[in-house]
Structures are given as structure tokens and as C-alpha cells.
Amino acid sequence: MSEPLSAAMRQQMLQRMIEIREIEGRIQELFLENVIRGTTHLCDGQEAVSVGMAAVVDAAHGDTVTCTYRGHGHALALGLTMRSMVAEMMGKVSGCCKGKGGSMHLTDMPNGLIGTFAVVGAGLPVTNGAALTAQTKGTGALALGIFGDGTPNIGAWHEAVNLAAVWKLPSIFLCENNLYGEYSPYADTAPVENVADRACAYGIPGVIVDGQDAEAVYAAVKTAADRARAGDGPTLIEAKTYRYRGHSRTDPAAYRPEGELDAWLQRDPINILAARMIADGQITQAAVDGLKAQAATDAQAAIDWALAQPHPPLDAVHEDIWV
Ligand SMILES: Cc1ncc(C[n+]2csc(CCOP(=O)(O)OP(=O)(O)O)c2C)c(N)n1
Ligand SMILES: [Mg+2]
Hints:
single chain, alpha/beta, Rossmann fold, 6-stranded parallel β-sheet, two-stranded antiparallel sheet, 11 helices, 42% helix, binds thiamine diphosphate
């Protein structure tokens, strides 16, 4: 393992992972109650990728992030409030996209989240666009694109990685390999064992990291960020992780082999960081339990607040459109 982070950084990562886990559970309930419409893609189990990534991204410096429809955790880790996110999902005017985006289209410019994309691979050319802007203006900012293990089978992925490599763009390609693309196991759809193996085709570093370990994710993203900012071009990072739930709200994930979920639960990202902090004398189990209780209170407060917010007026359909 790499250098341990400061106690304060660890504490922040732990707290945010606990908050993400809590609100995801509540969002699933709200969908089942039809309070939130449409569909949703939860990230339980993958929280370490979100907080490890977000600890590197510096939105004040112009860094940007794109991610997929499985983006609630990333948005919260980057700094979107629970209130704004839940209101957005309920279609309320106080949501981060004024209630017009919903679960799959969270955008939060002040925190660097320039888009959450429902079309597989669609965020990566946009990441390159942000990276090209940073390169052209010489801002030193980076652009990070997050995608799943199914995405390297899409043409846009190859075009984006190739272009970033050729132009040495300050892009970072961060894969959440959660073993499944919808209902298909990774191994059934990809000819190489690791997503990171594909990096050699583009002459860039391909790094595999334990996606259950927030500090390891942080270290890998930090190294890629230093490389990007130095003008040395992109990195492909593959975080090995697992989604505890099905692909989307209606998927019971019955295709998973017996025992697979249980094995991953043994390597829960929240427990891994909490145990390490307890061992290092930085937190007590009682304090971890306190963070969980606080997250539950905060989630309930966010839901109550969002429920009381108005829907956008009908005229709002004519606002925020290009043509
Ligand atoms: C271009 C395109 N093709 C197909 C789909 C349907 N689809 C939605 S999610 C998904 C699986 C993507 O899997 P992965 O990249 O591993 O991400 P994960 O959902 O596991 O986070 C597919 C095929 C889509 N949204 N866009
Ligand atoms: Mg996947």
C-alpha cells in the first residue's frame, strides 16, 4: 500500500462513504414508493472509487469530471449536497439541474461535475473536450472521465483514449470494473483479463487498483493527475470493485453466482477504511456508529426538505435550451 493519508482526509473519506451508502438506500426506497420516477443505478459497494477520485479533483483549479448514470456517489463525493441531489431526483426546482435532469443526469458545475451520461461512453469525448480546453489555455487543470467495465467495448471509448494519448491531453480514464455490464459478466464480453490491459494499445500507462480501498484509489488517481498536469498525457486506471445491487432498480441480480456478493461484502470499502483508522487510533467504533447515525438523520432531513420543494413551473420547459 502507498503512503497513508492524513487522519483528516481519511475521516472525510469515511464520512462521505457512509453518507453515500445511506442516501443510496433511501433513494431505492423512494423509487419503490414512486416518489422518484424513472430508473436509478445505485453505487453501493463502489464508494471508495468516488471518494478516492474526489480527493484528487480540484474544481477550484478548473478540474472537471464526467461520469455515468451510476453517478450519485461521485456527485456527492465531489461536493453536491444530499438536498440538491434528492430534489433533482424528485424533479424539484431546487435540484442541481432545476429538476430537469434526474438521477441519470446530475450536473454540478461549481464542483467540477460537467455531466453524468446515460449513453455508455458518451462522457469520454466530453472529458477530452475539457482536457483540450485546459491544455489550450494552459490552466494546468485535468479532466477525469469515469466509466464502467462494459464501456471499453464501445467505439467512443477507443476514439477518446486514442485522441487523448496522441494529443497528450490531461485526461484521466477511470474505470469502475464492477464485474458486470448490465447482466453480462465482464469475462463474457471482453477478450482481455483486465480493462487496464487495453492501455498498451494506446501507449499510455494502464494501472490496476483495489477499488475497495479509498486510499489506494486516491494514490492511483493522484499519480495520474501529476502526470496529466505535467503534460505527459492520459492514464487508464482500472478500479476493481463490485456493485452490491443489480444494474438498476428493477434488477434483482439473480445472474450472480452463489457466494459472490458475500465474498465482496467481506471487503466492504467503508469497513476497510474504518478498520484501518481504528487500528491507527484515529477513530473509535462508537464514533463510526455515530457517523452512520448522523448520515441517517441528514438523509431524512434532505428527503423532507426536497419533498417540500416546488416542481418547476410549466414555462421552465422553454428555459435552458440551445435552440
Ligand atoms: C451506447 C449505449 N449502448 C447501450 C446502452 C445500454 N446500457 C446501459 S448501462 C449498460 C451497461 C454498461 O456497463 P458498464 O460500462 O460496466 O457500467 P456499470 O453499469 O456496470 O456501471 C448498457 C449496455 C447505453 N446506455 N448506451
Ligand atoms: Mg460494470
